Fold this sequence. Notes:
Blueprint: H1 6-10, H2 44-55, E1 93-94, H3 101-104, E2 108-110, H4 115-125, E3 127-131, H5 136-153, E4 154-155, H6 161-172, H7 182-185, E5 190-191, H8 200-206, H9 209-218, E6 226-228, E7 233-236, E8 246-247, E9 251-252, E10 265-270, E11 281-284, H10 291-297, H11 300-305, E12 314-315, H12 322-335, E13 337-338, E14 346-350, E15 355-358, E16 363-368, E17 370-372, H13 378-390, E18 421-422, H14 436-441, H15 443-446, H16 452-458, H17 472-475
Parallel strand pairs: 2-3
Antiparallel strand pairs: 1-8, 3-14, 4-18, 5-7, 6-17, 7-16, 9-12, 10-14, 10-16, 11-13, 11-15
Region (Disordered): 17-88
Organism: Cladocopium goreaui
Protein name: Phytanoyl-CoA dioxygenase
Amino acid sequence: CCSTFLPFLHRAMPKRWKRGARDDDAPSGTPWPLAVETPAPPSRSRAEQLMQRLWKGELEGETPDGSLSRPVIPHPSQGTAKGYSSRGPRSSEAFFPVMSSEELAPLLVPLHHGAEKIKATFQDFGVCIVTDVLSNAECAAFEELWHDDLLRLLDGHKVEGEAARQAQNVQQDLKAWPQRWDQHLGIKGMASKHGLPHGSFAWAARMHPKVRQVFADLYESSPEDLVVGLDNVFWCSAQEEGSSTNPEWLHVDQNHRTGMTWPCAQGVLYIWPSEGSSSSTTVVWPKSHKEAYEKMMDDPEAITRGRSMGGQSVKLKELQLPYLREELLSEALLNSRRVPCPAGSLLLWDSRTVHQGWRGGPRLAQPICWEPRERRSEEALHRKLWMCGSGIASSHSAAEGRVHGMAKEAPSPSLEEGLPLLRACLVPYGIASGQEINWVEQHEAIWPSDNPKRQADVNNLRALLPLLRPEMEEVL
């Protein structure tokens, strides 16, 4: 079978995949980056076999090999029961406590309790944690898929010294991935670069039948009538330390002033547990999707941002009415909590619910959003098809099909002294098996410029469509 990076073994790097200082050292005529894998990177077919087993439910009853739980990081958050850290926040930073067991209990709904209980909890609180979506063996399989995605990126070319030793350790154990290397993959605890939003891990999570069914039940629809968003992977390495404060950026992801007034559910499928005070997770203000949200929609900030479909996000600290901003921020800082999510659980929240990310400790999870197909325009489908072939993420919304704000340029190899070289881009899952070399050859047609937002809007897809899996259009 063909390795994911077979094209890089035999062909020169396309022009849009930028060349850096290390290229000057490469022998003339040598494909760049030179791909010398020891051991060879996992094949696409191996990953797809594991994905099929996950989707067919073949791993539900199996016992995983080895330990799944990520190591506990001994850096507890230093905070008071509510409000700010006991040491006081830095400017624009806040402390949010982890939910107590009493606060968490009404939000936890085991999957087998059924669709009605999940929907009622979601509608009442604006947030719900569906537990037991994945078994331990399935979580272990997802961890393996993510490990494979990262190994496909690692290039053995000119890896020396400490980086070479670390790379060898990573080959054996995902948890050996150094925290410093995370900067290669993205910022703010997200893996947004190198095509990772379209790797095997991300697509295995999006397409998992139980996940799709949860969303279908929320919309009282069938899974076949839904389409999916293409968000970034949530990733902080096992070596990530806990944090006592985080930047405060509490916001909602749906602005009714844009005209988008339908209910929208966002989700995150957790592979590693994000529990306790030393884990990256999501902060939510339960029940803020009702009265607090309506107040936000009356603020001039929401009205102004609503003039553009890209103005869905509204931050509390940017509200223009001083009395309303202070009132809602005070309530939010008092009532917002970090959500402890068990491994194998699906965190759901209403897009109108006030929330933000919390970075401080390990996390391996995949944001997922399925929405009714009727909401998605042909223009959005066009953009999402291009994203599936280019490796670029979308915002959470399946209906919008908007290029993610972190996508700033075309993929390129990561070059930094003392760190291993990472290849430009995974072959996206959406590229059909056997089309890998053709995908590289068509790179100029897919990326005539380095601007992802522009390319998503103007690309005619003529070169890309023949390379895509036929089933992609059905879920986009």
